[in-house]
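the three lines:
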Amino acid sequence: MFELLLNGFINVLFTPSTLLALIGGVILGVILGAIPGLTATMAIALVVPLTYYMDPVQSLIMLMGAYNGGTFGGSMSAILLGAPGTPAAAATVADGFKLALQGKAGKAIKMALRASVSGCLFSCIVLMMVAEPVARYALKFGPAEYTVLMVFSLTIIGSAAGKSITKGMIGGALGLLFGMVGLDRIASVPRFTFGSIDLASGIDLIVMLIGSLALSEIFIQVESVARGKIDAHLPPPSCPDDDKLSFKEYLSNIKTITRSAAIGCGIGALPGLGPTLASYIGYDMAKRNSRNPELFGKGALEGVAAAESANNAVCGANLIPLLALGVPGDTMAAIMIGAFMVQGLTPGPLIFREAPHVVAGLYAGLILSNILLLIFVSVSFRMFTKVARLETTIIFPVVFIFCIIGVYALNQSITDMWIMLFFAVLGYVMVKFDYSPATMMIGFILSPLFEVNLRQALLISGNNPLIFFSTPITWLFWAITVYSIFAIVKSKKRSNQLI
Amino acid sequence: MRKMKLRLFLAVALCVCLLVTVTTGCSEKKEAAFPDKPITLIVNYGGGGGTDITARALAKAAEQYLGVPVTVINKSGGAGTAGIIEMLNKKPDGYTVGVVTYAPVAIVPHQMEVPYTPDDFKFILSYGIYRYGLAVKSDSPYKTVEDLINAAAKREEGLPFAASGYPQPFVYQKLSEIEDVNFTYVPTQSGSETNTAVLGGHVESAVAVMSDLMPFVKSGEMRILASVSSERMEIAPDVPTLKELGYDIAINSYMGLGVHKDVPADRLQILRDAFAKAFNDPTFQDVMKKTNIPANYISGDEFGQICVDGYNEAAENLKAMGLTK
Amino acid sequence: MIYEGDMMNFTESKVDQVGGIILGVFSLLLYFVIIPAEVVDVQKFGVSPRFFPKTMALFLLFLAICLFVSGYRKKRQEKQKIYAINPKELKLIMKSVILFACYIIAFNLFGYMIPTIAALAMFMYMYGQRKTRLLITISVGLPIVIYLFFTKALQMVLP
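prediction for all of em together
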């Protein structure tokens, strides 16, 4: 195993074309991720046609690099613009952008970078050591277990709600409703499509994100233009310390990072959940376990670390079900299956025997992608912060254009552009009156997962609700759910904000 | 002053727009041999999936026979219908070709409003066929289809099975009609979700595309009880078909290419010839082999007939399941 | 710079009550009009596709009532949060949204390049960019760069 991995490293490092593919993937991922509206998944369109000509290790690690880079890249615009570049970075905005407004953009980016890299390396280790048993255990999660896990995840809405729990839950409920648009996933009949074919596949997560979290936030910032502010968008660092992240600061967050990485691994190993949910749960758990929960949302480095470590941990953990079972965890992994297949390989239990060198190369590539990410961003982050310090008259229009073109390019759909605009206005109004677009986003992500699994479970059990209490896993998640609700009620009571 | 500038800008922009539309409008007048500009192929599923990979390979192979580039666009959504509608909405001049898969043409129109029926197409060819298998987990007590039916007979609320969309569940629908037992359809979102449901023991059996099941059959984690296609499968020749077991049930699903029905006959013929040659191209055959999708040539007219027959049959099946729109 | 009189001020109590009414009406509309019209009731398949939307509509109604009541209760409170809306800001945002809408329509009609250049320039001008050279460089240069990136690198087609 070790020898194989070493060979993998040598193969990647000393084959110029492979190394180049990896570097290209990482850089492309970071840039695509950092621009709101463009996502790393778009890099596929670039890589997939190339996979015919590349060898499997090359094309796969290029995809991996783009995925890892893109998941981090999203946090760049989350921190610098307050507009998350990818769904996975949505939880980073709350603290990252506040830090940037205090002039600490450099510090926040460095924290995000270290946390991302740590999270991903953590999941790499889990992947290499225990992929098989973890994947086997994940199989025990059937519809009933997923349903209870989703019930727990719904409680995040409660704790993510700001001052008013009612308003937070309204956001969540709206999100759940928007998640129901499209073909019903069980009975395959259209719901809320108003006769439009474009709505039949539902509202795209990225369209929703760009509209309700990115554009609406930019609209809020545009207000300052009306007040006559057209100079730099972000304040410069007030002291050189603001651009640095000391090792001590990193160490003091190591517990949060590890916790989030573990959560990310768990979510990544379960097919179908994805990095966005992982980062929200990671953020939420960090807030609850923090010594200073009141700092969260006001510029806590810990918050940035928690969200970023969790979402990048999913990158590595995604490969657990993919390699061990041949089951893709999300869109990116599904595309990787395609890349495997073009090469005549089938991911799954046999791949460790059939193509051990590919697996080793993939592991090596994933680890190296983190190192490259660290180097690339450390070198180039000043350039990114400089872009963010441009005049508002330039940066806002440019972001607008990227958002809208990116959204169009997703599905070549004009309807998506209108949906984005609708959510931008809705999100703006919500922010104006203290409703939370973030809880709407959480509800939107959870909606299909919760509903489909619940209905599947009831179909399996013949409408017997006892299925939700049938296994130890369900009991565990019920217990966590009860504890979570209890904790929320307690903390809100303390601050007298129950209604 | 400010308003003036804005107005000026608008005026200039408008003029340029007009100019562009006028010039592009003019350039299309001259008649030339078809095709004399790039052909667009709209794939009705997203990038990187089996349909996308194979369609791109076919498009690449067709370029040398058509003499023009074939640009591939992905337009997914609406259970595979969005891309097909996009193709139908384009000018029927033969320059827009769509990937037309079986389910969105024959089955989905019964479930939701779509602005077409199988009669609105002219088909170019069908180049791939999906084979389906009926699978259980390898440590499952069910060794034959009969075991499964006996088990279903004992369970009044229905024996759960997983499948990721039509036409797969029709198999169980017909089995339960013939044997008067109950199966419960648990819909999953993809073939790999079906696999996890079987491997995790959450459902008793499943029907899925053979290429999705094969890795697990090879690794000994799943057992195929029957082939649900009309003939035995090349990849698993020992497995009997349902027909051999005495049930008159077979489902097949196809990948093909189609154009709008108003495309001129001579242009359609050029497309048919070119893509038929592309089908036999070794690079395309190689991609099909690697993706485990059996390459299977069916001529455009035959494929059209298959879709029309399937369309009528699906109407009956869905009605029997109580699932028509 | 900004005078108190220029702002549109709303007390929290009022905002919550109005919000409650709007959401309440919306949830009723959802339950009695939109769901019956837009979601087919499939009985044979376990839980009906209508079940979850209806549950959510009822839950939303409940939340709307909560919101209204809490707004009503705050009516006589002295220290309420004031939502101040600056008409100047609102106007700019509305202009931006309208420009967005026009851009989408133009994009649909005329394709990518020209509407993008126009929209970019108009956004920049609207937000106060007056340096003509900068205005032209960015509004022409960027769309071309994006176009090349999408069509050449990402193999996507822009109209």
